[in-house]
């Protein structure tokens, strides 16, 4: 549920090319081998006998069920390191109700277990967003799956419309908008742009068939092609919605469920974003109040933030010049009240950046906006390159928009209800089907389920996990202190707890006291860090 008020780049499908490296490694290896061979031959032979070309070994393949997968490398973000896997393209009908509809390819990858004889059940990572690629985001969470890989294979399936699974693209409009990266469009302008995007997308896809229900059918088709193993579903953020719907449709196929950043089936995406963020900010502010150094440095920074927001809302946007953290060149960007709210929300997703928030807000309140904008550039860059906006709109417009209504009671909150109004307007021009019957019915299951939350999650707070827990006969909810959204699964001893849960299927017997040693990250009181 990676959503914020700066939705411009979320409604534009961003083309992401997965880079595979290794060619240079092979070239260097073969060059060394040829040099060694030359050293053992006579000078005459070397001058008269042409060297035979060395052919690269064909990539390894793996057979699983009916599928043949080929060795591939998964790229790590901001790194030359890669993860070895086996990949395949899996064709499916775009519209399952029409046998003659367009065929689209889904990208999937299998990470092989360290064990020569892995468990028969298959772990499946379901990515967030809506709009994130499981294959592209997995490397960021790889350490969370390390214990599981000791005995399990892991399946990554890019949901249709994401990653390399027929993404919904509007390149002409994207090219046009890149000329003005500082745009602050009205809702009317965004609706116009989104309509143009839809026209582009419809040249190669039908956006009506890129929803959670379609993803559930795709996953089941992949499972059957892989030999119909039992699945251990690990859903993160929006992926928790996919997991619940898959388990409802195919309970016999699911062995266990792990949900991090829990989205209850009853939740309408967008409806509670403003309230959830405000709750997170209040928790962050209360922690500062209880820390003498933080309180002395910033006083009540929660009030300072709202005063800054009111100032920006009442006045003209601030033109801020700062050093771009990607290019290291000075850039000038506009900051108004709406962008401030979006920046604060992005800061609150992660415990590390949340620790910088009081300092960044205090600096901005004193006229120094550069720290806030520089960090925001990093955060928005990471988000914009990991979310497919077209697929996101297909999900929200089909599954949530019809239930959204303006919330004037949120107007006094930082996010207000502008995002709700934007969704309602945008979904009038984005192609979508009607919401499936009983789509938002509460999830009820006897499948062993582990629910994980960050205490300060600004979008799916722990209370959401408690709501889901009510419908489970064999579930347990765990909360990690001080953490934000969808980061608990990778914190401290949590990967081992998840591994233990999937091994024994006894959530209520988990010894989770180790989580008590994970504490909040103290707020930075200056640019050197937190107080000792």
Can you put this structure into words, describing what you see?
It contains 18 helices and twelve strands. Helices cover 39% and strands 15% of the residues. The chain is globular and about 65 Å long. β11, α17 (462-469) and β12 (475-480) form a beta-alpha-beta unit.
Summarize the structure.
The protein has 18 helices and twelve strands. It is an alpha/beta fold and 532 residues long.
Question: Which short descriptors sum up this protein?
Answer:
15% strand; two-stranded antiparallel sheet; alpha/beta; 532 residues; single chain; ten-stranded mixed sheet
Question: How are the SSEs placed, and which strands pair?
Answer:
Blueprint: H1 23-40, H2 43-48, E1 61-64, E2 67-75, E3 82-93, E4 103-111, E5 122-126, H3 134-149, E6 154-157, H4 171-177, H5 187-201, H6 212-225, E7 231-236, H7 238-249, E8 254-260, H8 273-289, H9 292-298, H10 301-314, E9 318-323, E10 330-335, H11 337-349, H12 351-354, H13 357-365, H14 370-384, H15 389-399, H16 418-426, E11 449-454, H17 462-469, E12 475-480, H18 494-504
Parallel strand pairs: 5-6, 5-7, 7-8, 8-11, 11-12
Antiparallel strand pairs: 1-2, 2-3, 3-4, 4-6, 9-10
Helix pairs in contact: 3-18, 4-5, 5-16, 6-7, 10-11, 10-13
